[in-house]
Design goal:
This protein has two helices and four strands. It is of the alpha+beta class. The chain has one domain: Alba-like domain (Translation Initiation Factor IF3), CATH 3.30.110. The chain has a four-stranded mixed β-sheet with strand order 1-2-4-3, covered by helices on one side. The longest helix is centred in the middle third of the chain and has 15 residues. The chain starts with 6 loop residues before the first strand and ends with a strand.
Length: about 90
């Protein structure tokens, strides 16, 4: 990935908030957008990518999808494994 300026981190907000953030990045001149999420937000990240591709920017293509696992420190269990996803969309 060429820098972190074209990355949108998906969390608990509604899908459209992240779609608008991606649209703002694309309109600012970047050629690709990276959508990242962890844990329960993964399905929301996929929704963001699909809404962006189907409704707003049909010429966007899925360039890459990466999945993985991160170890996160928790107060209750010590360390826990959390799934991650990175979706790269390009024009």
């Amino acid at each position: 990935m060429s820098g972190e300026t074209n990355t949108v981190l998906v969390g608990r907000k509604p899908v459209l908030n992240y779609v608008l953030a991606c649209l703002a990045l694309l309109r600012s001149g970047v050629d690709e957008v990276c959508i990242k999420a962890r844990g329960r937000a993964i399905s929301r990240a996929v929704d963001v990518a699909e809404v962006l591709r189907t409704r707003f920017v049909p010429e966007l293509k899925v360039k890459d999808i990466s999945i993985g696992t991160e170890q996160v420190q928790t107060e209750e269990a010590g360390t826990a494994n959390v799934s991650t996803i990175e979706i790269v969309l390009s024009k």
